[in-house]
Design a protein that fits this description.
The chain is mainly alpha-helical. 55% of the residues lie in helices and 9% in strands. The protein has a two-stranded antiparallel sheet. The chain is globular and about 35 Å long. The chain starts with a strand and ends with a helix. The model has no long low-confidence stretch (mean pLDDT 94). The structure holds FE2/S2 (inorganic) cluster.
């Protein structure tokens, strides 16, 4: 499932960026070599990162 339609970033790419050290949506864009465009995906991406943080902490 795509999280960012503008840049073609899917859940797997977010998880990989997280493993590469992403702490924010901006980090995910940077690691994937792109920039936010419409920014509609930022809340969902931030939520996904937070969920992965919570899973890693449990
Ligand atoms: S959907 Fe991610 S920048 Fe537009």
């Amino acid at each position: 499932m795509y999280i960012c339609n503008c840049n073609g970033i899917n859940q797997k790419a977010v998880a990989e960026a997280k493993r590469a050290g992403a702490r924010s949506a901006l980090d995910v864009y940077r690691i994937n070599g792109c920039k936010p465009q419409c920014c509609k995906c930022v809340p969902e991406m931030a939520q996904l990162i937070a969920q992965q943080d919570a899973r890693a902490a449990s």
